[in-house]
Design brief:
heterodimer, A: alpha+beta, 3-stranded mixed beta sheet, about 25% helix, B: alpha/beta, 8 helices, about 35% helix
Chain lengths: ~120, ~220
């Protein structure tokens, strides 16, 4: 629901990093977004197309890599990846413990930009 | 033909907000004011829970409130009518509060006279979970009529909270809400979360929850 605000930040960051590099066009923006985010790729791109019109990043493609959800076992400290659906019943593959804490899966990162 | 070049960025989209949130926490330490971020769906009972909590701690802690509303003043007026220091933030359609907005809200309160400030976040179980408000602790309300499946549908919210208040507990017997199933679902997501069953209407459980809040606030002030 806050796609617009997040997309604005993506555009700002991309334009800021393009400045000073003699860029005529930003063609692709590489993003890393955690699996726990509810943002849908299609909508981020739609908002981006709307916001970026008339800027160096107009028509840039958002290349979204999803970062996995990683949990840490409270009992044996093992860390392991799970899918979003498994969050409802996580279980440590090493010791079977069900109490686990979140290590990662909430990332929102602009990794790089491809420019001309 | 122009060549495509790659520029490394590696910048966190939320970095500015996290910086603002950390600055805010430093300011709160200096002022000895404890900040609680309270989140829930619309209608779960945030305003009435806040009023009951303030009542329970009257004479012990001075509590102020930051109200976030998309476009009305209803909650702030209700809180102010009880003689509580309150600031209204109209988010203008924003679905959550971030640290910069909360910092602005705190400017409108006399922090020297307040031990605790409670943020009543925008009613929404999705977006507020993603943004650090600068609060010292996060709490959420799940009310019985909403159903026991909410931890399955909004896992991030249950993951980021230190406390869960199960409100409208007086309604439990009339509903098919399975409190044990809910408890198990929540603890699987967040083994450290504290769960209090309360009714902001009858006052049930409010003292236990208020005692927890008071303990946390005192611990924070004592450093």
């Amino acid at each position: 629901m806050h796609e617009l605000q997040v997309t604005e930040r993506i555009l700002d960051i991309a334009l800021k990093h393009a400045a000073g590099h003699n860029v005529t066009k930003i063609v692709r923006i590489g993003l890393k977004i955690g699996e726990l985010s509810d943002l849908e790729d299609e909508w981020i791109q739609r908002y981006f197309d709307y916001l970026s019109a008339g800027t160096l990043a107009e028509k840039a493609e958002l290349a979204i890599e999803r970062a996995p959800i990683v949990l840490g076992c409270q009992a044996c400290n093992n860390s392991f990846e799970i899918r979003r659906e498994q969050l409802r019943s996580p279980e440590c593959p090493e010791c079977g413990e069900t109490q686990c804490r979140l290590i990662s899966g909430r990332e929102y990162l602009v990794k790089n930009i491809e420019v001309m | 033909m122009e060549e495509v070049r790659l520029i490394e960025v590696k910048q966190d989209i939320h970095a500015d907000n996290e910086r603002a949130a950390n600055e805010l926490r430093e300011r709160l330490v200096a002022k000895k004011t404890f900040l609680l971020n309270l989140m829930s769906s619309p209608g779960a009972g945030k305003t009435s829970t806040i009023l009951k909590t303030i009542d329970a701690l009257r004479g012990e802690l001075d509590i102020g409130v930051i109200e976030a509303d998309i476009d009305s003043m209803v909650d702030a007026e209700k809180v102010a009518a009880e003689g509580v220091s309150a600031v209204q933030l109209r988010t203008g359609g924003f679905c959550h509060l971030d640290a910069a907005m909360v910092a602005k809200g705190l400017d409108g309160l006399d922090l020297d006279a307040l031990d605790v400030v409670i943020i009543e976040n925008v009613g929404n179980l999705v977006c507020p979970a993603e943004f650090d408000t600068g609060a010292v602790r996060n709490a959420m309300i799940l009310s019985v009529p909403e159903g026991d499946d909410k931890p399955l549908k909004y896992p991030l919210m249950f993951t980021v909270c230190d406390v869960l208040l199960v409100n409208k507990i007086d309604y439990l017997e009339l509903s098919d809400f399975d409190i044990e199933a809910m408890r198990e679902r929540v603890l699987r997501l967040n083994p450290k979360i504290r769960i209090f069953e309360i009714s902001a209407k009858t006052g049930q459980g409010v003292d236990e929850w208020s005692a927890w809040l008071s303990g946390e606030a005192r611990g924070f002030v004592a450093g």
